Amino acid sequence: MGVSKYGIKVSTSDQYDVLHRHALYLIVRMVCYDDGLGAGKSLLALKTTDAASEECSLWVYQCNSLEQAQAICKVLSTAFDSVLMSEKS
Fold this sequence. Notes:
Elements: E1 2-4, E2 7-11, E3 18-23, E4 27-34, E5 42-49, E6 56-63, H1 66-88
Antiparallel strand pairs: 1-2, 2-3, 4-5, 5-6
């Protein structure tokens, strides 16, 4: 899973095939959490919308670690905060 100014790219573990892309402007909400089942699985949930904002989708990904999930959330939060701050200026 990679994060850029364009959004999130989900690819195979060898980075060869792109499985899905989430455009930054279509991400409504994100949250990282432990699965709560005692297995230590760290999950990243994304709520996205379509371009017409008519439908929402929920995507859940298993991350390699809680640190990875938190890092992705932090990068996206920083990007969103930067955009919101620039709108206020």
